[in-house]
Write a structure and sequence with these properties.
Blueprint: E1 2-4, H1 27-33, E2 45-56, E3 59-66, E4 70-72, E5 78-85, E6 93-100, E7 118-121, E8 126-133, E9 139-145, E10 153-161, E11 164-174
Parallel strand pairs: 4-11
Antiparallel strand pairs: 1-9, 2-3, 2-5, 5-9, 6-8, 6-10, 7-8, 10-11
């Protein structure tokens, strides 16, 4: 499993964390900064998406971006994630994502990184990500890419903003049919 901070989702299939992430801020420091959004958030739009990447001039570019509940199990060519729009007045949001898969993958993003913003639990079946993010034109998003060794089956992502439950995304990751 590879995670991508989706502010840079356009362009390449193998991206690494980027964007405005303040993982080392605690609630007190964020509140003192005066930018931390408190209280219930109004959610303007929610979307789960899948991106297929195709070759273009020696690199990979997004060839399709669509809403779906089935993610093709095609390593290094498919990414998926969620986008949630909040009011433009929202400054700094603490998000938590609880991402559970059917069996342990070969690797999790950040699993061996002491500075990672995610923790791997539940016999390596769940990644819990905690980060502070600044919405980009009101959007907060998180993206993962399919890697060799990712399991086929039912996946689930629960998303919270400032401890407020926002949405549970349930979807399937399946091998495409032969000759597709």
């Amino acid at each position: 499993m590879r995670r991508i901070a989706a502010a840079l989702v356009v362009g390449v299939a193998l991206m690494f964390s980027a964007g405005s992430v303040w993982a080392d801020l605690d609630d007190g420091a964020a509140a003192q900064a005066g930018d931390y959004t408190t209280g219930p958030l109004q959610i303007e739009e929610i979307r789960f998406f899948v991106q297929l990447f195709g070759p273009s001039g020696g690199e990979y570019e997004v060839s399709q971006d669509f809403d779906a509940t089935v993610v093709p199990l095609v390593p290094d060519r498919v990414c998926y994630g969620w986008r949630i729009k909040v009011p433009l007045t929202s400054k700094l949001i603490r998000f938590r994502e609880e991402f559970t898969i059917p069996t342990a993958p070969t690797t999790w993003s950040g699993e061996s990184d002491e500075f990672a913003t995610n923790t791997i639990i539940d016999e390596r079946r769940t990644s819990v990500t905690n980060r502070f993010v600044t919405p980009d034109k009101g959007w907060v998003e998180n993206v993962w890419c399919v890697l060799e060794g990712d399991p086929e089956g039912d996946y689930s992502m629960k998303v919270y903003f400032n401890d407020q439950f926002i949405k549970q995304f349930d979807f399937e990751v399946r091998r495409p049919p032969p000759n597709s």
